[in-house]
Amino acid sequence: MNDIIDVQSNEQKAQGLKNVGWVSYVLHLIVAVGAVVPGAQASALLLVIALVIDLVKRGDAEGTWQANHFSWRIRSTIWAGVLYVVTSPLWLLLIAPGWIAWGIISLWFLYRIVRGMLAMSKNQAVDA
Predict the structure, then answer these.
(1) Sequence-separated (6 or more) residues with CB below 8 Å from residue 87
(2) 104 CB contacts (<8 Å, ≥6 apart)?
(3) Would you say 97 and 86 are in contact if contact means Cβ atoms under 8 Å apart?
(4) How many other CB atoms sit within 10 Å of the CB of residue 8?
(5) What are phi and psi of 64, to 5 degrees?
(6) Which of 48, 54, 84, 81 is nearest to 69 (CA)?
(7) Secondary structure letter of residue 1 according to DSSP
């Protein structure tokens, strides 16, 4: 009888992690689309909330295919942030180089989020 309860609790845990993953992906997606579409800037606070969720819940997903998604989102966010900071001096040269660099970074970030969402919808880890 305990085996049945354990299976159900594992399934519930897996579904809970997947729900958390979807919430995080949607928050990331809102920010990513806002970064690509002019005038639709979403708050960076949404990205910080998503990052905190991923950092807090990542340990719960260890040993599952979903652990890959938590790491994927965390790495995507950190790399995008580092790239934005590194390319920010381009805005001082002229507006165009900064705009081009940040546009490329934003498209890359959007690509990573959509790729992760597609993998999650198939219950698969993201291929790195």
Answers:
(1) 98, 101, 102, 105
(2) none
(3) no
(4) 10
(5) -120, 165
(6) 54
(7) -
- How many angstroms separate the CA atoms of 89 and 87, rounded? 6
What confidence tens digit (pLDDT) does each residue in 60-86 have? 989 888 999 999 999 999 999 899 889
Give 95's pLDDT tier (boundaries 50, 70, 90).
confident
**Placement of tokens 């805005």 in the chain:** 91
For the chain, the C-alpha Rg in angstroms (whole number) is 17
Closest CA to 31 of 11, 51, 13: 51
pTM of the predicted protein model: 0.82
The pLDDT score that the predictor gives to residue 51 is 93
Residues in the chain, overall count: 128
Under 8 Å between Cβ of 105 and 36: no
The terminus-to-terminus CA distance of the chain in angstroms comes to 40
CA 15, distance to chain mean position in Å, is 18
């005038």: which residue's tokens?
A: 39
User: Which tokens belong to 91?
Assistant: 């805005």
